[in-house]
From TrEMBL:
Keyword annotations: Membrane, Signal, Transmembrane, Transmembrane helix
MF terms (GO), sorted A to Z: endopeptidase inhibitor activity
Protein's UniProt name: Alpha-2-macroglobulin
Organism in which the protein naturally occurs: Povalibacter uvarum
InterPro entries for the chain: A2M_N_BRD (IPR011625), Alpha_2_Macroglob_MG3 (IPR021868), Bact_A2M_MG5 (IPR041203), Bact_MG10 (IPR041246), Macroglobln_a2 (IPR001599), MG2 (IPR002890), Terpenoid_cyclase/PrenylTrfase (IPR008930), YfhM-like (IPR051802)
Membrane-crossing segments per the record: 48-69
Family designation: Belongs to the protease inhibitor I39 (alpha-2-macroglobulin) family. Bacterial alpha-2-macroglobulin subfamily.
Keyword Lipoprotein in record: no
Pfam family, one: bMG10
Any coiled-coil regions, as ranges: none
Highest taxon of source: Bacteria
Amino acid sequence: MSAIGDRFRNALRTLFGDIAWTRPGWVTRSNAAAERATAHVRANPKRFALIAGGIAVAVIGAVLVWRWYEGRPKPVEVTFEASPPAVTCYACEPPGTPNPLIVRFDASVAPLDRVGHTVDPKQAGISLSPDFAGAWTWDDDKTLRFQPQADWPVGTQYTVKFDRKQFAADSVRLWRQDFEFTSPAFDAKITATEFHQDPVVAGNKKVVATITFTHPVDQANFEKRVRLQMFDRVTDKTEKEITAPAHTIVYDKLKLNAYIHSAQLEVPPKAGRLQITISSGIQAARGGNATKEALQNSVEVPGLNSLKISNLALDIARDERNEPNQILLVSTSFSVLEKELPQKVSAWLLPLKHPDPKVQAEFERHYRGKPFAWDARNFRPEVLNANTRLELTQIPGEQDHYEHHSFRYTADPGRQVYVRVVPGLRSFGGYVLGDAVERILEVPELPRELSILSKGSLLSLSGDKTLSLFARNVPALRIEVGRLLPRQLQHLVSQTSGSFETPQFNNWAFDSANITERFVKVLPLPKVAPGKPQYEALDLGEYLDSQSGDRRGIFLLKIQAWDTGQDRPMEYTGDNWNDARNSSLADARLIVVTDLGLVVKRAVDGAQDVFVQSIADGTPVAGASVDIIGRNGLPVLTETTDADGHVRFPELRSFQRERQPVLYLARRGGDSSFMPLSQGWDERGRALDLSRFDIGGVQSNADRGALSAYLFSDRGIYRPGEEIRAAAIVRSQDWNRKFDGIPLRLEITDPRGTVIRRETFVPGQAGFGEIRQPTRETSPTGTYTLSILVVRNENYGDLIGSTTVQVRDFQPDRLRMSATFSAQSADGWVAPEELAANLQLENLFGTPAENRRITARMTLSPAFPAFRRFPDYQFHDPQYAREGFSEELPETTTDATGKATLPLNLQRFARATYRLHIVAQGFEADGGRGVTTEAAQLVSSMKYLVGYKADGDLAYLKLNAPRNVRLLAIDPQAQQTAVENLKLSRIEIRYVSVLMRQPNGTYKYESRRKESVISETALAIGRDGQNLQLATDAPGNFAYVLRDPEGQQLARIDYQVAGEGNVTRALEKNAELELSLSKKDYSPGEEVEVSIRAPYEGAGLITIERERVHAWHWFKTSTTSTVQKIKLPAGLEGNAYVAVTFVRDPGSAEIYTSPLSYGVQPFSIDVDARRNPVKIETPSLVKPGETLKLRYSTDRPSRIVLFAVDEGILQVAGYKTPDPLAHFFQKRALEVSTSQILDLILPEFRHLGLSSAPGGDAEGLLGKHLNPFRRKGEKPVAYWSGILDADSTTREVQYVVPDYFNGTLRVMAVAVADDRIGVHDGRTIVRGDFVLSPNAPTTVTPGDEFDVSIGVANNVEGSGANAQVEIALETDKGLEVVGDARQQVGIAEGREGSARFRLRARDELGPSVLKFAAKTGNGTGRRQIDLSIRPATPYMTQLRAGVLEKGERDVAINRTLYPQHRKLETGMSVLPLQFAHGFVSYLANYPYACTEQIVSQAMPAVLLASRPEFGYVRAEPGADVAGLISELRSRQNDAGAYRLWPGNDQVVEFVSLYAQHLLLEAAERGQPAPADLIENGNNHLRAIAARDGNNLTDERQSAYAIYLLTRQGQRMAAEIAAQRKRLSERYRGQWEQDVTAAWLAAALDLMKQDRDAGQLIDGMKFIAKTTDEVYYDPMTRDALLLFVLSRHFPERLRSVPADVMTTMAQRVNDGFYHSLSAGTTLLALDAYASASEGAERNFSIAEVLKNKSVRALALPQGLFPEVAFTDQAAALRFGNTSDRNAFYLIEQSGFDRTPPRTEIKEGLEVLREYTDASGKPLTQITMGQQVDVHLKFRGLKSDFIGSVALVDLLPGGFELVVPTQPNQATFSEAASEEGEGEKSYGESGFTGWQCQICVSQKAMLDYADMREDRVVFYVSANRDVQEIVYRIKATNVGTYNVPPAYGEAMYDRSVVARSAAGKLTVSRP
């Protein structure tokens, strides 16, 4: 090795020489320093160790600090984009405002209080430089807008800066703080130049240039920069400048366009050029930047010989008859006078052969038999002669001169034409065609056409059996007649699709050749002039088979254009039938020669009525055999028609496979006809479309015994805590069904979709049953749905009826109001002059409401006149308004009679017709509550209006066809009247060319609509109307205009007359059938009279239908108008329909309309036979406190319910007296479907001819964020008797009217017998000597000061006109009267007065009573009401926990709470279960109700109820385990999972597992847990346990499922092994610290696999990091781990770190827990307590009072003692003298006394604003005013925060505005047995929750709970601002505290928001 090294060194030395290196000095110094340091360390080892340790600690600390910093929430860095303002739209009408500067941010930026508001830029941190006046507005949280006051300076650069601290929300950081933009700069451009020839004066020629500016231009500055230069052309490449013409400049009115006009230009010999140059430096009139570049453009000036022929061509054009015409097109470069051109244009036909034989022979050698091909090389002028010259006929144009000319000519297609335009042709402007223009053109081929005439497929067997064919330019026709073979109809139908007349075969291998025998013939056509139409007749009679069979008259016909010379089609389309429809030279049609027409009507049960009608004469065909043919061709069913041509078949669904029906076949003698049968979709298009008729309604059930239920409540609205009282009537469709044994179910659903009651419903005798449903004060508010269903199985049922009721706080109305107009016309209109609104306001106790404030709003809306008495007439109003108008009318008060008149002063408006709408509000005496009414009326100054109705379509009339229009005049009462002195003008409408001035100052012709008066006549309309026959003697567009003597247009009738056209052109015209009935209501057995107006004469079928055909009648008429009668059968009830199908007479000349017309008219059938007379006797007047006696009887034995309800409640609810008969017999839909083939009848050939045809509780209240201090209120006045027996014997029930009630009772009764139902609706007035009507707020806050008024009605007889009434007010300790508590008021007998008191709310929470007393002479009256004094803060629970080692600790108490509902408790224990007391309190008051939450709320009752210290949990909310199980059962789906929320299908796996876990815990503790419920849940568990999860979350749930199944003794070894393998392969390093490992360890422990279990559990650590999942937060994870350790590995509890409990205490203190973590922690603590051994306690608790003294608290005995402390405690002192840790807990729950003045924004922010309806913030509010509440919120913590509750407390003196929602009684029917009728599984009457109070909302809103004093919204939040708007109303004058809005997240207690409290004043209007 050394030798090798030497050689290598020698080699290097040889290459590089000797190299010497000396180490640097720093190396030497470093070595020396290192040696000294080493020696120092050796000399001082301890000191070195301390230094090294310090450095390590510093490094580690720095790393930890960095990680802490990185883990903190980072501000969101937001980018933005600024959109500079665009140029202002100066030309807009009206002129546009300056465009704004828009800044759009990519995230939510604006502070919440600025969203939607204009801001002060200084306060908002915005600066604009240079400064410019304008307004900065946050349009939303992401859009900032600057709107300048004036127009932007031109081209100015601006800088915008945003202040870092003031501009954006605290959590936002902008990516930059400023930006620049430039306002729109001035610019100019030449947009157009033209050489202009004046269209009138030939010598006027000039150049016009258009220059467009962005801003109005500075004229002087612009004009001095314009220069024109003129150049003459010398040669093609050279030109010389000559004297430039003068010029003028004109501008538009806005100076945005300049038009440079040169002076008049002479025509130069040669073309020249005019150059326009505009130098730079143009400026706007307002200054600013100048243009930087010059503008330049040139225009060619034509020379004398500049006229050119731009186009010469031969073409084909169709005329007004749709005939093709040969035309020569000549286009010129300048317009030429029409009269000049014919002299200069000539055309000759060129010979077919060249005159030179040699040339011709040479051509024929190559192109034998073809015409000679002429071109410019071989053309010789001598070939032209006079005989071959073509006659050119000029087609005139609209103007005298134009560029595009045309001539008609006639020549054979394919010939060549020589066209010459000679020189000298002059244009209108004097330009000359210098050289001749010659072209050789080929005459184009005329179009070839071929078709089968007319639409349809049926030819009458009794007629000429001839089909019409049309051809053009076709030498011959090849006709292929395919006659259907016997027994092939089923294949024709089953193997094809498409329409009846043109079926398409579905399979390429199966075609017409498979089912027909073919007959083919070629029909040569005579040679006629090119383009002339030819008509041929095909007689199908010769193809009719004389043999018997079903092939007699069914043909598949195909025609082709045929080249006889080549014996081939002129256009190849293929041999298949389907191909014939793809060519213009072929056609195909299915033709049936028959006299049998079919009409089939299918009933709702599938039964079918078949009618056979003769095509020949329209009569019914008797004795015809009707078969239903199956797929195999064999009859399935056969019937023979009766004398009415009718047969009936049952439903066909039972026939399947080869017997599946495919067609109807009708046969009689040798005649047969068919129609495809469709079970579902009308694939053949044979069904009549009835959608344009009134056929809607409820649907019938195929089962006539199908059940329906009518549900009604006694009043429709209830307060929370009241009982809902309702009843249900069950009936079958035919009213004959008994209900014994029919399983019915009652379901009641709350507003959120939770089924709160599901039970069997037994209707009782006569199908009449009662429903009572209690509610709680904590029940959700909103719409409750009561449903009756027919039971199908345990989970499903079919809805047969439902109704809705409202549950919410409300105040009954005490007034009734009506509105009328001084002039009224229900059906017509009234004149505006002197029109006024008359209002009547009454007390509900029957007296006028005098001296009451009235407000009103008037709205005028444009209205188009339409009148229900004349529904078919069109009316025109010459004074039709174009714009609406709205205004508030001046306030007024009612007089002594309760009346008020509001002058409308409509004469101030221009003469116009409006829909006048008045909304008026009448208020209670000196209060803000009131009632509303409205009225509407059509207003017009017209004395009469004219309407018209045509007897047919006016859009396309046949030439000389009769058409009549009926005119009538009506007066303001909508009564027909006579009108004279009218003028009728007939007008022709054409489009003509009109000379129009252009914007640049020049003139051009433009096409404009022109109406020319043809004739004018005087016209008078009689009282009975006037007929007008339209003139149809000339084609075109026409109109009749009717005017009054003043020239006002009263009517305009537009119509179009088609010229003569080809029969191939279909006339698009519907054959309308007009039906009218003699009346709208008929009795069973009565004759229905039908007036029929048809478009032609013929025969028809009338039927009475609904769910099936009930009756029919045939008729025939020789006129177009007839009256027919048909008898209404007995037993038909409710409503039905008259349906008419009408077939055109074969002899009718109306062959261009559909041969079938039809119509439907509904009518009602009275149900008097179903009415059950009921007699109710009640007094008309009673006094408060008296007994109301209700006496009742019925004509026949019945069951009856009587109820009497305060009319004020019913008015609030919008309640209508029950009307069961109207429900059961409400309009049913027409469900008979009609199919037919009659519209396929072809017209007889003789009518077509061969000529052209025309064309054409308190704790519960706290838990749900509700008011525990709510007032007791007065019970609603409502009496319900329950269901009683009734007959002809008079019976009596009694009701004691409450002594506080004055008003009207609506007395109602519903009496039900087996076959009849009766209803009573009456009124009883309740009125005392004095009627006291207080008006007070429902809720106030301590410190509120407000007015309370009392209305007093003096009904004391003899008190006189000068009666003095003393009114006194007495309050309890909660309120104090500010001022005098007694007042003297003069109130005359029979009159009303009021008094007003000022009150202040004291600091005493709870309901407070107000006692009013009135006294005069011998008359006295008293009234007591109460209101709620509630705090301005929400109820909050604060838990503080800790772990205390040996020693003492003082914990400060810092909340000051109201004594009401205050809870101050503390406890101490050696076991951590002491914390459970706090969690129990928290869960007991938890306000929400998803499945996880109700399970967590039940945890204390299941786990702790057996422990003595927790015995109180049995009384806490959620302790009803049986109720929980019932709720879980209702939420369990078919798979065994539990839905997260009631009313939807969302399932969360963990929640289902958690619920199952609770059931197992309950079962182990001996509590009721149904085995079937658990087993169903286990099915879901098994599925989860065995699945292969997609992520670690899935695997965690699988492990949880395995554990729960293993706890029940199920072997899960295979599942555990499979899962452990998956976890090891996919999630190594993750799952070992996931709770997945704990669940598997517990399962293995239960299976006695101790080793594997120990390995898994030993690696688990507490306080491990978790994923960001809703159901797997750190506290929940640690709680579940502690549960597993305590229950299954108790021996390992000694190794649990002490900081686990410390962390738990810290989480409690910080509020970092929610329902799930609280529930799982209880689970863990209970297991921990059971596994741990208690020890003798050695600790103490004492109060440190505010005076610094100490008072010991005596702890009770037990493991978990708890003791209350007083509100005098400033701190609690905990002592521990033992060696074990002690766990303490402090709970403070209640309402804080001091309203918060600061906001809270912890992960969420919330803001409330009060505005008017337009969104303008309110600075003052008047009593009675409605206020919009804007509740805005935004998430700050994460991108999504689910399950957030927003609590918004109303200020005192306000109430919610809740729109009236009348109860909805749903009609539904269902078969009473399984398998009958249509089934709808799982259906109920619940239709989903909607926000009833929201005016608008842009929020993820799940539910809103409406209460008297607050609204609780349940929402989800994200980083965007969301908003909910609802409305409140000021009811009382006063100054009120405004409570803060509050929000919290259900699953994250660190997310809390609160707005600031405030003050609000309501003033008197």
